[in-house]
Amino acid sequence: MKKIASLFMATALTIFIAGCDNNSKNADASKSADIWPNKNITIIVPFNAGGDTDFHARNLSSHLEKELGVTVIVNNVSGANGNAGMRQVINAKPDGYTALFFHESMLTNKVVGLANQAHEALSPIAATIVDDSYVIAVNANSNMKNLDDLVAEAKKRPGELIYASSVGGYSYYLGRVFEQLAGVDFNIVDAGGGTDRNAALLAGKIDINVNPYGVMKSYFDSGDFIPLAVINENRNKLFPDVLTAKEQGYDWLAERYYFLSFPKGADNEIVTKMAAAIKKVTEQPDFQKKTEDAYSVSPTFVGTQDLIKHLDSTLQTFEENKDLVNN
């Protein structure tokens, strides 16, 4: 009887200790959320400095500092089309002090096998930019003025017109989609990031380039590049003279979400706090003006749940069209 009583007491004590331990962990998490942030926050940008992702992250970080009252540091960790920086954040402590600023290339990375994880391995917070300013452009010396000119030239020279992309990335996917829509065959090559592709188009080493308008704006202003179409249903208010692909008879759409994520397992209260701060930033006139002046796109806030739904849906679309994403 004494043995049974002792066993019962030991079991009860174990349960009590475990319960206390869980309560302690919950209390610690709650306390962490209450005092967050109380030290520097690091945002990892998984590309080199100077590009559009880097600009949007730095613009966000400088404004978040004012909202959160702490220093927000941006670190560039490039490699594997963004996967190197993403892995660093996935493996970081989910305490709300390390975050990733990325876009949907994390989804195509997974589909083509550059990564085995995407947003499901993170705690997405919110998007700051929905870039619907993608434009297809050619060198001004090409004598092409619209999409019909491009299609006619591509049909005269099947497999010869060089379309620049980051193979496996979003630009590659867009090129493959247009090939199907127009019934043409491009020579799609890997020409690096947006800045590299601009240099190649200027030098005449490639024939076609797709980028957000702001990435090529200086070349449009100088007359070196000709925008053939905005890859969207509606004209962009910041460059309204450029016809859409849809206006020219091609149902070709593109948009890219730039968003912030914590490592998976971040406290929901901290995610909510950061999302609220991001929303305030996107509503600030100074943030909006800097974004529009630099990249001809207006900030758009997308909250946590809507962002996750979008990423889930987009990943499914890419997986269903895997043959258009893979080389």
Notes on the structure:
The chain has 327 residues and is of the alpha/beta class. The protein has 2 domains: 160 residues, Bordetella uptake gene, domain 1 (D-Maltodextrin-Binding Protein, domain 2, 3-Layer(aba) Sandwich), CATH 3.40.190.150; 115 residues, Periplasmic binding protein-like II (D-Maltodextrin-Binding Protein, domain 2, 3-Layer(aba) Sandwich), CATH 3.40.190. This is Tripartite-type tricarboxylate transporter, receptor component TctC. Keywords: Receptor, Signal. Pfam families: TctC (PF03401).
Main attributes?
327 residues, alpha/beta, D-Maltodextrin-Binding Protein, domain 2, 2 domains, 6-stranded mixed sheet, 5-stranded mixed sheet, 12 helices, 11 strands, 48% helix, BUG, Bug_dom1
**Sequence of secondary-structure elements:** HEHEHEHEEHEHEHEHEEHHEHH
Q: Which secondary-structure class do the elements indicate?
A: alpha/beta
The DSSP helix count reads: 12
Radius of gyration: 24 Å
Quaternary class: single chain
Mean pLDDT: 89
Termini Cα gap:
73 Å
Helical percent range?
40-55%
- Most strands sheet: 6 strands, mixed
CATH class of the largest domain: Alpha Beta
Sheet with most strands: strand arrangement: 2-1-3-10-4-11
Percent of residues in β-strands: 15-25%
Low-pLDDT residue intervals, each spanning 5 or more residues = 1-5
Shape: globular
Question: What's the CATH H-level superfamily name of the largest domain?
Answer: Bordetella uptake gene, domain 1
